[in-house]
Specification:
By secondary structure, this protein is mainly alpha-helical. The chain contains 6 helices and no strands. The longest helix has 22 residues, at 62-83. The N and C termini lie far apart (72 Å).
Amino acid sequence: MTKKKRSYFRFYAIAKAKGIDLDRYKETLVLQFTDGRTSSLREMMSTEYEDMCECLQRGESIADHKERLRKARSAVLKRMQRLGIDTTDSSFTPVNEFCMDLRIAGKPFGLLTVEELQSLIPKLEAILRKPKIRNTQCAVSIPLIIRSNQLPS
């Protein structure tokens, strides 16, 4: 299985458009978004890279981005709870299984961006608005009386 080569075009394009001196600030930016784990773009996880590009593009701080992400995740989890999905499981397995459905998000909950989470809210609201299907079949017992001197009709 070949590993997909990541393009760093987005990062360099945003830096050029914002006038960021990468010779001076690239290592610092990468260290901030990896919590000091690495200073190399290649060693960044894809979610860290996407978060960094998103913050640079919006011009917001890391704290602001994390707060937006926390609020979006909270809003989605609240709606999932109303749908009956167990969001208290520490492994997040039920939440991830629900999100992995292509009709919902197509990827695990932890990998969803702020925009994807915000686009998920209307989908969940629509599901909540749908009427629940009730089982209309009822078991009714009908007494059957057979008399020996009468023919069945």
